[in-house]
Write a structure and sequence with these properties.
Layout: E1 3-10, E2 14-23, E3 28-33, H1 42-52, E4 56-66, E5 74-76, H2 78-95, H3 103-109, E6 113-115, H4 119-191, H5 199-213, H6 216-233, H7 240-260, H8 264-284
Parallel strand pairs: 3-4
Antiparallel strand pairs: 1-2, 2-4, 5-6
């Protein structure tokens, strides 16, 4: 299923944007464009995608944006600095010391700066990115559902076309066998001298020929396949493979109907059915 989704997460110091795109594909093919800091989490990202998408070519692009204070190779650990200041004030009160807390006091404490590549920074980036990715995949699924609803309506309309044709075939087939039998009997009587005509043999041959033209079973099976297709279309989850299989079975019945019938009207309807089935096959490839 094709679709697009975007997700954002973060705060004033770190913002992550994730964009997910998908196009049709028989299998799940994942392509990632992620910051260096997320390389250690590539497996987790792919697994997160697999839980949301069953098949298709999915491209996920993740970008991070840091505030000016947080950009660069070294970043200030604001939360830790805030805690140091708080504890220094507590220490002043406890010791009865007056005066201002100056920068050198904080620098003496150390451990206030962190590299952009350290474990803590990567973990923070991953936690933020995971939220953004999750949101983007949810948006992607919603986009796919909207397209799926539109596609389902199109499939149902095409299915209705086949069903209408089948109803006409049912009506025509009801008189096809009797009409063929009468025409063949009349023709044979014209060609064969009545004295040499074996009535019992004629009746037997006519019955056999008429039986070969009977398409009742094919009509019943095709009608059943149409119902199965419609029922499957209304189910949740991955239905593309099932629908494709049902279409193959429908195609076999239509081909048999076309080959057994001798009425031109039925042959015409069968041709139009084949065209519609081919259109359905193309559309079903867009479903998971």
């Amino acid at each position: 299923m094709t679709g697009f989704g975007v997700g954002r997460a973060g705060d004033q110091t770190l913002s992550v944007v994730a964009e997910a795109r998908s196009v049709n594909n028989r299998f799940l093919d994942i392509s990632l464009r992620i910051p260096k800091g997320l390389y250690p989490f590539e497996t987790e990202i792919r697994e997160l995608i697999r839980t949301k998408v069953e098949r298709g070519r999915v491209t996920l692009a993740v970008t991070e944006e840091l505030s000016n204070a947080e950009s660069g190779g070294v970043r200030l650990d604001r939360e830790k600095a805030t805690q140091y200041i708080k504890h220094l004030h507590e220490l002043q009160e406890l010791a009865g010391i007056t005066g201002e807390i100056r920068l050198e006091h904080l620098l003496a404490a150390g451990d206030l700066f962190m590299s952009g590549d350290d474990d803590e920074a990567r973990q923070r980036l991953w936690e933020t990115a995971r939220k953004a990715i999750h949101s983007a995949l949810g948006d992607l699924a919603a986009s796919g559902k909207r397209e799926g609803d539109t596609l389902a309506r199109d499939l149902q309309e095409r299915l209705a076309t086949i069903r209408d044709g089948l109803e006409v075939i049912k009506a025509l087939a009801a008189g096809q066998t009797a009409e063929y039998r009468n025409r063949l009997a009349t023709r044979l009587e014209q060609l064969i001298d009545d004295a040499r005509l074996d009535r019992n043999r004629l009746e037997t041959e006519l019955a056999i020929s008429a039986e070969r033209l009977d398409i009742t079973e094919e009509i019943v099976r095709l009608d059943s396949h149409l119902n199965l297709f419609n029922d499957t279309l209304n189910k949740d989850g991955a239905i593309g493979k099932t629908l494709n299989f049902v279409l193959q079975e429908m195609g076999r019945e239509v081909n048999t109907i076309a080959s057994k019938s001798w009425l031109f009207e039925i042959s015409q309807i069968a041709v139009r059915m084949k065209e519609t089935l081919e259109q359905l096959r193309e559309q079903v490839q867009n479903l998971e």
